[in-house]
Design brief:
By secondary structure, the chain is of the alpha+beta class. It has three domains: 183 residues, Growth Hormone, Chain: A; 41 residues; 217 residues, Up-down Bundle (Growth Hormone, Chain: A). 64% of the residues lie in helices and 6% in strands. The strands form three sheets. The chain has a five-stranded mixed β-sheet with strand order 4-1-7-6-5, covered by helices on one side. A two-stranded antiparallel ribbon has the order 2-3. A hairpin with a 5-residue loop joins strand 2 and strand 3. The chain is globular. The chain starts with 9 loop residues before the first strand and ends with a helix. The relative contact order is 0.12. One of its GO terms (cellular component) is membrane.
């Protein structure tokens, strides 16, 4: 469930990270001539907020403390130097990055904002739109308005992978803006429930496509050293989108027709997404896969600067992305070469949903009321704030502690929180403190979720999937996410009625512990490794 003000100017390496070697001529293993530039201070773009660890996030840019070298994001590669006598000797090359990926990450993250906004907008608006459309007494039709978005998202997540493979990442974003904009317009102008449902379906298709291609695009254009931080921004923007929907609903109490404006607002980032993607570079990895070498080099220059072209192109070629392998089909995902990594991706999203996040959020209002917090807005704001705060912490730790350790810590914290919630409802000795304990358990659970289980799966999946299957495998995993989300929403209340909320929470705690065991034995650490290195280890060419 990830908005940070992104700028185009750079973060500076204070200790003056320098490029190896003076201007000398080298050749790589494919005999492609390259020039290693003269040593200069490295700079590339990043603007975030706050301070964490060695990164100082501020309105001017990000400064990396002494000892860091974030901009030098591709590992030094061994190349062969052409000596005057014809002999070759291995040397290390490390060129500077003068481009900036941050503006393009910011544009892509508009899709994440829309993801969160469309998920949250109906919560405050449902009561008012139901009265306006004459379905205030019809819980079934109200349920359709809510669940149609999830059904559309399931379709969109599967569709997004194929579109991204066929047309490229940026063109898929442009196509995605169509259902997002049309869906927002239909919802805002609906005069009957049928139009509202169609609008929600289109919006769902749009956010389903976004859920697949936003993390995919960000992971493919992000420098290795800060890929975790940038990838977790996706989750942070989703959280901000949900909070934006909450804030947008504040005028409803004084203006019952404000719900139309709430839906209309979502058309603005949809249009901005389309406009931004018209000037954003295509993923170099997809371009190389399509053998569009000239366009790939141009995209690399835009993203990383001229000095990175040979280095990145060599890395992409070494990974086999320029090979004669055909594009993967859906059935290739289940081949012996890819099945393990695909199953890990699907399992992470299943654990994410089966761990009970939607149940906790759903019951948070009643839990807070029991503790004396009567305001639904205050309860939602507290949960949302915990989610955003935890995601910001995760962003700062992603490239320091690693994805796997954050996942284990997150699910462990979720298990303990679920156990606390379960005991607060059953242990008589805790009865006098049940309200405060339930609130503490809920906030700790959401905080733990946002540290790993929330942001990491969407970041990790594009990293572990080979480029040949990446778009379709991400789409499949996101499809499992939406399907499990839909099923849990459909049967959750029935299960609670039959077994009681305490036992259900205990079941969620058990699932969290199973997730810890599964992650410990099946998930690989990807921190500080290029996508090509990961691909060569997990999905070597046959």
């Amino acid at each position: 469930m990830q908005a940070i003000n992104l700028g185009a100017n750079g973060f500076l390496v204070q200790n003056g990270s320098r490029v190896f070697s003076a201007s000398s001529r080298f050749k790589n293993k494919n005999s492609t001539a390259c020039v290693i530039g003269t040593g200069k201070d490295t700079s590339c773009g990043l603007r975030l907020w706050s301070r964490c660890g060695g990164l100082e996030f501020g309105p001017v840019g990000v400064r990396v403390g002494a000892g860091s070298s974030v901009c030098s994001y591709v590992k030094s590669r061994s190349v062969k130097a052409q000596a005057s006598d014809g002999d070759t000797t291995p040397v290390k090359s490390q060129s500077k990055s003068s481009g900036s990926v941050l503006p393009y990450v910011g544009v892509a993250s508009l899709g994440a904002i829309l993801f969160g906004y469309h998920l949250g907008v109906v919560n405050g608006a449902l009561e008012y739109l139901a009265k306006d459309l004459g379905i205030a007494e019809n819980a079934v039709l109200q349920g359709w308005i809510v669940s149609t978005l999830l059904a559309g998202a399931t379709v969109g997540s599967f569709t997004g992978g194929s579109l991204a493979d066929q047309f490229g990442r940026t063109k898929t974003f442009l196509l995605d803006a169509i259902p997002l904009t049309v869906g927002a317009f239909l919802c805002a102008t609906a005069t009957n429930v049928q139009t509202m449902i169609i609008g929600r379906l289109l919006a769902g298709i749009g956010i389903g496509i976004s859920s697949a291609i936003v993390p995919l695009y960000i992971s493919e254009i992000s420098p290795t050293e800060i890929r975790g931080t940038l990838g977790s921004i996706n989750q942070l923007f989703i959280c901000i989108g949900i909070l934006a929907a909450l804030v947008a609903g504040l005028p409803l109490a004084s203006n019952p027709l404000w719900w139309r404006t709430m839906f209309a607002i979502s058309a603005i980032p949809s249009v901005l997404l389309a406009l931004g993607m018209t000037i954003s570079p295509e993923s170099p990895r997809w371009l190389v896969q399509q053998k569009k070498i000239d366009q790939a080099e141009k995209a690399i220059k835009t993203l990383y600067g001229d000095g990175k072209v040979v280095e990145v192109m060599a890395d992409l070629s070494a990974s086999g992305q320029g090979s004669e392998e055909q594009d993967a089909g859906w059935f290739d995902l289940f081949s012996s070469r890819y099945f393990k990594v695909v199953s890990v991706g699907a399992a992470l999203f299943l654990f994410q949903q089966l761990a009970g996040i939607n149940a906790v959020v759903y019951y948070s209002t009643s839990v807070f009321r029991t503790a004396g917090v009567a305001s639904d807005v205050a309860a939602s704001a507290l949960v949302g704030a915990a989610n955003v705060f935890g995601t910001m912490i995760a962003s700062s730790l992603m490239d320091k502690k690693g994805r796997k350790s954050l996942l284990i810590t997150s699910f462990s914290g979720m298990a303990l929180s679920m156990l606390l919630l379960s005991l607060s409802f059953t242990w008589k000795v805790l009865a006098p403190y049940s309200g405060p304990l339930a609130v503490i358990g809920t906030v700790l659970y959401v905080l733990s979720f946002s540290l790993g289980a929330g942001p990491v799966p969407a970041l990790l999946l594009p990293e572990i999937f080979a480029s040949r299957i990446r778009a379709k495998a991400v789409a499949l995993s996101l499809g499992m996410h939406w399907i499990s989300n839909f099923v849990i929403g459909l049967y959750f209340l029935s299960v609670v009625t039959k077994f009681g909320i305490s036992k259900v929470y205990l079941g969620f705690a058990s699932i969290c512990l199973l997730a810890v065991l599964y992650i410990g034995s099946n998930v690989v650490e990807t921190k500080g490794r290029s996508l090509e290195d990961i691909e060569r280890e997990l999905s070597p060419a046959t």
